Give the backbone structure.
Amino acid sequence: MEIKIEKTEHPGKLGNLDDVAFGSVFTDHMFLMDYYDGEWHDARIVPFADFHIHPAALVLHYGGEIFEGLKAYRTAEGKVQLFRPEQNIQRMYNSAVRMALPLFDKEFMLEALIKFVEVEKDWVPSGFGTSLYLRPFMFGIDPKLGVHASKEATMCIIASPVGSYYAEGINPVKIMIEQEDVRCVIGGTGEAKCGGNYGASTRAGERAEQQGYSQVLWLDGVERKYIEEVGAMNVMFKINGTVVTPELVGSILPGITRKSIIEILKDAGIPVEERRLSVDELVTAMKDGSLEEAWGCGTAAVVSPIGEIAYDGVKYTINEGKIGELTQWLYDELTGIQWGKKEDKFGWITKID
Ligand code: PLP
Ligand code: COI
């Protein structure tokens, strides 16, 4: 399918991002494509604008929505590049399968994403730690109140120049283990990137924020015994020299940053285990000092050191609340590849220009 391009007559300008909250300013254009009659139609890049939506649209009632998050980075040479975009497209496809939304041609979506970034490339910022956050998403718009798989949908990509996700930047964040709400269960939608998962987790996140924590650390939804992930990132712990991260049991988002870090660790010969990690084991490791470092990882959060974990009313400080050596190394390795400062030895980079 051809992608039509209609440029805006009122281009905006990339401003300073220092005091801009994550994802609150947007570029000039958006990508759109419509699904009906069993096919995708009218792929186009058009000026950024509001949607008109039927009040009975499926997404507004039954949550038929999926999304992705990835970034375009500007290298020191002024070039623009993407990090493993085909992985995001594949995950979005898997999410569409889980949420009974229309499927799409993955190669075409990758082409659309690249074309969109080409159009918006002047919006990719160049300051330290900044990038252009790309948000592909799809939602069902069938104008009927019956509950069914979506047969009409909108595919969209928007973009937002961003700095750090957390106000703390690379400084350690505080995380609270959630004991009341659960995010997902196996068989539910935890491994899909769908809006509903975030809707279900917002209340706990707000409660944690009121107590001074950045996000919650979720336990499994059945036994409430095993560590799963943080609100917007996967989680890793260095215990006695080994990196332990919860295995992908079906209720956790299979993070692309998580996968990349595991590959970086294995390549460097650092022991890493994907396995179930109980909260009891974690608490013991925090008490006896064998928990050496902890960090969250995700596209928005990058590698985010965790300096404190609260559980059952007790606060545990990790690595004296400072960024750990391995955490810093992983941050440098990963961001080095993403921003083109280090060799792309795993073949993860897609160059835009
Ligand atoms: N877990 C959740 C719940 C997330 O929202 C994210 C962010 O996308 C991640 C994990 C990390 O995934 P990725 O590394 O693909 O960004
Ligand atoms: C991401 O890291 O891309 C996320 O989706 C996190 C968040 C902003 C929901």
In short: The helical segments are 58-62, 85-98, 106-119, 195-210, 256-267, 279-288, 325-338. The chain has two domains: 4-162, 173-338. The chain has a mean pLDDT of 96. The pocket of pyridoxal-5'-phosphate (ligand 1) is lined by residues 69, 229, 232-234, 253, 255-258, 298-299 (CB under 6 Å).
